[in-house]
Amino acid sequence: MNDIAPSRFKWVGTRPVRPDGVPKVTGRAMYGADLAMAGALYGKIIRSPHAHARIRGIDASKALKLPGVKAVVTAADFPDHKFEYVGPERVAQNLWHVTRNIIAREKALYEGHPVAAIAATDKAIAEEAAALIDIDYEVLPHVIDVDEAMAPDAPLLFEDMITRGIEPARSKPSNISKRLEFTLGDLEQGFAEADIIVEKEFKTAAVHQAYIEPHACAARVDADGQAEIWTATQGHFGVRALTARLLGMNIGDLRVTPSEIGGGFGGKIPVYLEPIAVALSKKTGRAVKIVMSRDEVFKATGPTSGASMRVKIGAKKDGTITAADGVFKFQAGAFPGSPVMNACLCAFAPYNIPNARSVGYDVVSNRPKASAYRAPGSPISAFAVESALDILAKKIGMDPLQFRLKNAARPGTTMIYGPKMAHGGYVETLEALANHPAYKAPLGANQGRGVASGYWFNGGGESSASIQVNEDGTVTVSSGSVDIGGSRASMALMAAETLGIDYRQIRSIVADTASIGFTNPTGGSRVTFATGMAVVEASRRIVDELRARAAMIWEVDVDGVVWEDGQAKPASSNVGDFAPLSLKELAAKKALTGGPLTASAAVNAGGQAPGFTTQFCDVEVDPETGKVTVLRFVAAQDVGKAIHPSYVEGQIQGGVTQGIGWALNEEYIYDKEGRLDNAGFLDYRVPVAPDVPMIDAVLVEVPNPAHPYGAKGVGEVNIVPPMAAIANAIDNAIGRRLTELPMSPPKVRAALDAAADD
Amino acid sequence: MPETAARVVLSSGFSRRYTGGVREFAIPASNLRGVIKALDKLYPGLGAHLEEETTVAIDGEIHEIGYLQPLRQDSEVFFIPKLEGG
């Protein structure tokens, strides 16, 4: 419940200096690659140069004879696992697949797929040894494109893969891992009621999360089997569990400490290096450190899926949408598990559409396994749906914001997966943009304006936190959530508000797996909401304890003590005439009143509200070069209650910036051998400062009553609309609809040339 | 506290796999544990699948599965696939 009125917040909603700022800007923060351990060996992964190849044999004997080489591991050093999907459908893990992605067994399934690993005394020796390992490959035909991978005659990655989700089950294997379908109402009837129908095909490219910090970890296994891992991860409890399961260890024998993290965006939830580092350490008895190069990051860690889609939407002349149908075919990479289910569920979520269907296909091909990327799945289907809606609005002759407002989902709207929407927030984002002065600003020649909206579920789940009051009355807040988006500051602000003390008295840290209770990864826009609830609950428990200590000192009943402004006070004059006791004074008497002041709390948080955003942008198209310049970007997002508004604005600006890159430049480019041609930031072009205008982040605050301070997840939904918003703006500027990402200069030029030919 | 009858709905995939296609149930229960126990009684083994593989939307609000999650009068309970973020 919102038990503290917003107007009374002293710390929540303020913008103090970030606690992790000084170490980061002075270069002292310890990232994954920064850990130096005495005697640590250099770990190097040997990767497949082929997109698809059978591994007929690996001979490491020459490498092992090289002085300084301490060990080589291959798949033979890892236990194999049963083929079974375990866990929830979207996040089901098949350890048979996972262990083969960590290190290839029968076949290499993409360029960069790990095949062996070396531990040596230094980098030069490891590299020399790598050249001495003889791997006998039988190169096989490969397939990269999702539509080609679905063709009946496509090369098969798994000769026995039968599509799940089709009944009766097919007998012929294919690269289609799974088919999904969600339906609502009567699709045929809905399209029959429509006056105007738009149907279009769209394609998006695979794009990488492009975090600045490459993956890195160090591991040490002691002689008693106890092991430690230091790693750059979004979820150290997940690293612990998966590494233990893959290697047959007890979870309790493994302690994982997360380093400072230089970006993740979903791409640092999976495990890549850690089991290999542990296996090498086990074999050598020495600590082993492995750091990926940028080339390895691009080739072997998850981009998000590229997709091929068809969307059909029908509406009446008055703008009422009557039906929507979408088919979403997603690249999963070399192993099943694209975010296509999310794409299906989010595609039409911002709208009240009585008749709808989403069909999804999860398709394997010879690419690195796709991993989560900021609102995984939703931006991809939104590109198709929000582009189609723009076409529809134009045909009807409605302003795109008014068209969306007419069809907006509101509390009570039935979602495609069944439940009725419980929370609002979408309409408010549309209204915020409609009232924004820039929305009516005039446009010049070759300029256009585009609108798009987005939806993301936001997450809850398990989180742990603890509070310690130190001897001098300062406070340490610990949580199990890796801080990617400013959570240390947010946790400290919520603790300060609840404890009634100055934010600067609080130090907020991320604790390792042995020092705090289980916590789900930092992902799904869940931390401020769920871990925040744990911090507030732990703070409340400390307040209760402090009241009890004051009652003991005053020799009164605890009900006679209240906690106000960071002090224990008598509840009324009837209790007695006592001077308030500050946190510092109570901390000084901790030993006399019962010992250390500490409290912890754990939650399985529910009642999270979804995230909505609506954005518009202005672009200018250079008719000669096809280059698109983003002139203006305004993003209105429902953020619940912004705990630290600067961080919230930063999340919005970050998501939009990544969306601009996804829209205009970023893509995985393969050569005819199935090898990645642009595995580096020179050729894989993320936006740089001159590519991005100052993004106007409009915070729309519709508090979530399920959170003590009204917080909602804010980290992901902002990346959902930019691709469609930019496509819509380009269409507005040049009168040509681009349906394929990225909308890079050659594609824009081709569209202009086609226009000239018309 | 009197028990209430919740409208409980399974996803089509789930009902196909575990209940022979039956998707909707009226179950008197005051919390989520009551719903899961009742469904497990009807379809032995279903309870474990619901606990491990789903998230639940109670009157539209999404929660992780927790036994003591209370249900209101005439609550709508949808078991939906578990979601993942980035």
Features:
heterodimer, A: 758 residues, alpha+beta, Aldehyde Oxidoreductase, domain 3, Aldehyde Oxidoreductase, domain 4, five-stranded mixed beta sheet, 19 helices, disordered N terminus, B: alpha+beta
Structure description:
The complex is a heterodimer of chains A (758) and B (86). Chain A is α+β, with helices and mostly antiparallel strands and 758 residues long. Chain A folds into 3 domains: 40-140 and 215-291, Aldehyde Oxidoreductase, domain 3 (Alpha-Beta Complex), CATH 3.90.1170.50; 303-458 and 609-757, Aldehyde Oxidoreductase, domain 4, CATH 3.30.365.10; 460-605, Aldehyde Oxidoreductase, domain 4, CATH 3.30.365.10. Chain A contains 19 helices and 28 strands. In chain A, a hairpin with a 2-residue loop joins strand 22 and strand 23. The longest helix of chain A is centred in the last third of the chain and has 28 residues, at 527-554. A 5-stranded mixed beta sheet of chain B has the order 2-1-5-3-4. Chain B has 86 residues and is an alpha+beta fold. In chain B, a hairpin with a 2-residue loop joins strand 3 and strand 4 (61-63). Chain B is globular and about 30 Å long. In chain B, helix 2 packs across helix 3. Chain B has helices at 12-18, 32-42, 46-53, and strands spanning 5-10, 24-28, 54-58, 61-63, 76-81. Chain B has one domain (5-81): Beta-grasp domain (Ubiquitin-like (UB roll), Roll), CATH 3.10.20. Chain A binds chain B through residues 87-92, 165, 167, 180-183, 209, 265-267, 269, 339, 341-342, 345, 372-376, 411-412, 415, 417-423, 456-462, 523-526, 604-608, 706, 713, 716, and chain B through 9, 11-13, 16, 52-55, 57, 59-64, 66, 69, 76, 78, 80-86.
